[in-house]
């Protein structure tokens, strides 16, 4: 690349989360960085967007880096829309989201605000990557993965992410020296079995907390869950054309009214 | 079917919206209906779930039908999780969501609370359909599509929706006699160009409203947008495995650290 790339950075844990601070620091080594990130945590927001209320956006200064930062009242997808269409002067060369505090592998991609930001950018024709670390702790050691953040983003800038795709990158909770490498994977066939923790409030009214148990019945060695369980970083190319093309002919045989 | 099917009904416009009232009335003709729907509108919520706050759920009586109804404080996906795991005694035979006031065709499926409910049910192994009418009006005439709601759901119960799929059904804004029939389609390659309407509040602070223009550059006659524009009902089988399997081999060639 002849000139420095323009990099849009966002996340779903909020602009002051340690995960995004590490990602910003890594991206500063690769290009000119503009951050447009939520002003508060937006985990499990899926691909929500804000259409029935207003959005606020303020320039902020959080650390000493060269990046320019905006804190936004919306969801991760709102931040990407605002960044691309209102804040940036030109299309960014890439959009990176994260590093999420916790896994977005397998079915978690569906609920992920981190990945919704990356997918939103890919819908707008911009190469995009969502990064997540399998450690929910606020004090997770993101430095262990910093060189991979740079390597993967650099490769995406050099090679170009296929149109209609965003990359879902998950890191195992390991020290850098124990990471075995990178695997390109498919989304594992895994799911959550919900357990609702029913409680009674001081006024005697019932309420619930959503909890659950993660079930992975996928035995394939080409899935993201397998890679992560075996010490590898997983990369899954994720698409926003949700059509199951293989099943169109089956449904065409049904007896519909005409 | 020897016995009446158990049908879980939800939506994203809220339990009192005319669209869900028509859907409930149609489903009462097919089976035993349990409604678990949001207590307030949840449009454009994507696949959000509630993990950092509590959920409330109350049995309510809204009209004279035989259905049993619960009004829930969460998102559409929360309602499905609560319905399946906490409220129903057995797995429902099908979950239907809608009828949404407005389109969920093409890229709108990504932002849709209506479809997130259907996809959530399909993740839990339950056949599921999201219904939407291309009319945003609260007073849209849902009776024009009632016989199709029954026909499509009946066919899904009889034939079984393929595992890993939910159906995304959109109705054109037409009188029943003008509907030309049903097309099984792929998701059109269309998108929104955002326009942020920037305003100033009474305190002099800037804020934004998200608006946009819908762009369809897809010329194929097999897309949902084509079907709807030509007087047909569109049905797209939607999957929650987001992997773009075709691009895995391409990304495997990148020069990653190892």
Write down the overall geometry of chain A. Answer: globular
The interface involving the most residues is between: A-B, 85 and 85 residues
The largest sheet of chain A, given as strand count, sense and whether it forms a barrel, is: 9 strands, mixed
Q: CATH class of chain A, please?
A: Alpha Beta
CATH topology of chain A: Stationary-phase Survival Protein Sure Homolog, Chain: A
Number of domains of chain A: 1
Distinctive features:
258 residues; nine-stranded mixed sheet; 29% strand; two-stranded antiparallel ribbon; 6 helices; homodimer; alpha/beta
Task: Provide a brief overview of the structure.
By secondary structure, chain A is α/β, with parallel strands linked by helices. Chain A contains six helices and eleven strands.
Task: Tell me what you see in this structure.
- The structure is a homodimer of 258-residue chains.
- With 258 residues, chain A is an alpha/beta fold.
- Chain A has one domain (6-189, 221-252): Survival protein SurE-like phosphatase/nucleotidase (Stationary-phase Survival Protein Sure Homolog, Chain: A), CATH 3.40.1210.10.
- The first copy, chain A, is 22% helix and 29% strand.
- Chain A contains 6 helices and 11 strands.
- Chain A has helices at 18-27, 76-87, 113-123, 146-159, 224-229, 248-252; strands at 6-10, 32-38, 57-60, 68-72, 94-101, 128-133, 165-171, 181-184, 190-200, 206-216, 232-239.
- In chain A, helix 1 crosses helix 4.
- The first copy, chain A, starts with 5 loop residues before the first strand and ends in a 6-residue tail after the last helix.
- At the A-B interface, helix 2, helix 3, helix 4, strand 7 and strand 8 of A face helix 2, helix 3, helix 4, strand 7 and strand 8 of B.
């Amino acid at each position: 690349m002849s000139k420095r790339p323009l990099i849009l950075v966002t996340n779903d844990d909020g602009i002051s989360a340690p995960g995004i601070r590490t990602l910003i620091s890594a991206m500063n080594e690769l290009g000119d960085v503009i951050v447009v990130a939520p002003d508060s945590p937006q985990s499990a927001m899926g691909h929500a967007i804000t259409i029935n209320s207003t959005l606020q956006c303020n320039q902020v200064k959080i650390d000493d880096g060269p990046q320019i930062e905006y804190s936004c009242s919306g969801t991760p997808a709102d931040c990407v829309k605002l960044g691309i269409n209102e804040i940036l002067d030109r299309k960014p060369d890439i959009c990176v989201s994260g590093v999420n505090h916790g896994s977005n592998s397998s079915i978690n991609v569906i609920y992920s605000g981190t990945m919704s930001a990356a997918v939103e950018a890919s819908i707008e024709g911009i190469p995009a990557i969502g990064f997540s670390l399998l450690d929910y702790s606020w004090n997770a050691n993101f430095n262990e993965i910093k060189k991979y953040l740079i390597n993967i983003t650099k490769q995406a800038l050099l090679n170009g992410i296929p149109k209609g795709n965003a990359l879902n990158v998950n890191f195992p909770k390991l020290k850098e020296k124990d990471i075995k490498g990178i695997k390109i994977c498919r989304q594992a066939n895994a799911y959550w079995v919900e357990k609702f923790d029913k409680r009674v409030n001081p006024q005697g009214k019932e309420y619930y907390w959503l909890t659950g148990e993660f079930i992975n019945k996928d035995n394939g060695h080409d899935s993201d869950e397998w890679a992560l369980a075996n010490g590898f970083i997983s990369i899954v190319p994720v698409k926003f054309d949700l059509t199951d093309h293989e099943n169109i002919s089956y449904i065409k045989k049904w007896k519909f009214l005409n």
